[in-house]
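User: I'm preparing a small set of examples for a lab meeting where we compare how different chains pack in three dimensions. I only have the primary sequence for this one, and I'd like the structure in token form so I can line it up with the others. Please keep the answer compact; I'll paste it straight into my notes.
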Amino acid sequence: MAENRSKVRPLPIGVDSFEDLITNGYYYVDKTGLIKDLLDLGGKVNLFTRPRRFGKTLNMTMLRSFFEIPKDESAAEKQRELFSGLNIARAGETYTAQMGRYPVIFLTLKSGKQNSWELARASLYNEIEKEFGRHSGVVLSSELDEASREQYRRIMQKERREEDYLQSLQFLSACLESAYGSKTIILIDEYDVPLESAYAEGYYKEMADFIRSLFESALKSNESLAFAALTGCLRITKESIFTGLNNLEIFSVASYGYAEHFGFTPKEVEEALRFYGKEAYFPEVKEWYDGYLFGDTEVYNPWSVVNHLKQMTIKEDIRPKAYWANTSGNTIVRTLIEKADAGVRAEIEELMAGGAVEKPVHEDITYDEVDKDINNLWNFLYFTGYLTKESERRDEEDTVYATLRVPNREVRTIYKDHIQNWFESELLEQSGVKKLYAATLSGDAGTMEGEIGGLLRRSISYMDSREAFYHGVIMGLYSNLAGYTMESNREWGDGRPDLVLLPESIRETAIILELKWTEDPLKLEARCDEAVTQIREKNYCRDLALRGYAQVIAYGIAFYRKDCVVKVYGA
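Assistant: Understood. Below is the structure token output for the 571-residue chain.
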């Protein structure tokens, strides 16, 4: 039966249009309770901040499908069908009476992610023009005054006078109110995407000025506004974007309101797994994709759950993986991590090993000041989903401190595979490796020891897999040694040395590296001696000499945490 159901209900990978999802029969986790809460709580301007891929766009298109005035009776019937049987349809006449009652402006700012201000501005202008075009039939057939009609046509015809666009959402909402006789709902999706890109590419001031003007006119004193909803990953401070916007209500991962509407609750995950006959895999799905706490609500990563469930319908016993790894905007996170000092690196090690850190939490963030204080790292990791709250407390001055941890195995994998690599690549760029290479080729074990140890002390380690970590670090260090190819765990002599560096010419020096590690600092020297003994007993150097290499130098290297010992064995 599960197989038949899975054929009837395909899983919506990458489908972020509510209408498409329902019309095409995709499996839908019902989030229409968001509509009820918006109507009950009555916020004038509502900002929802959540990590990437937590259902923000799908929810925004759902709001548009519910509230927007249909074009005709056929469209009205389709609108009713879309919500038939869903939670909002069962909520009662008070709520269903609001269906199809408002003109809606829907604007996504995703396209503003560009590498120059000119391209970003053109992309945002294009999004605004498309929304004007979507409403042109109704607006231009209404009784507009000549000045308004001319301004509307200028935007439609892409004349692109800046003053037209700075107040375009306020202007469009006024036109829609005049045409329909009803105030307008404004929905703005991914509002902070162009701001993050602008920060990374060096045109933040221009973008911030544009967004501030656009929002102030549309959201602050707009008499044609019914209510507005915005989504993004981060709240940008009032002083930066929401200047004077005293009607703004913010619902972040730290808030208790609307917590269950973005991401999947445990009950929703269990129901989805049961629907596809995969309920036996619930503990595994929980280990990998659960662990977020929004307010006091337990939440799963919806993107990863749906992706893994889709793969399980294809192959029953497929292993989970980090589906979320390459979907998040991580430019800011990488910038901050590259500036981390020894204390921050130690705390990230603690997190990767399953521990927690306590940090002050605040939502007043500006991109243009983010790299001026390394403490902002923790807020960015928290609000963008790389960390989650375990608990919180307030001190005497009412400062909120959150105990933060890595949410689940998926994110821990991202730390291991991405954040650790960012550290290593940055360290290699900063320190250079010429001194290490020269020492290695000349048999200078003392200099090698100092160079490798120095890098380890500036690095981070994934303590759950020490041997693999050290092996990976040494491979990374020697990967750019010009004129050499690297072999890892290949057969030489009577065994398999960890790493062999082979020169292009047999007249040059071949290098063998045998690695050991220990949890006991008193055994560090002994472990290094074991590595050298293994090189001798397994005849690693003899085999290379027989291949004709003019010289072979072999090293035993032993590691204890951030310390190492290097000893040379010459053939």
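A couple of notes for your slides: The chain is about 45% helix and 15% strand. The longest strand covers residues 551-560.

User: Perfect, thanks.
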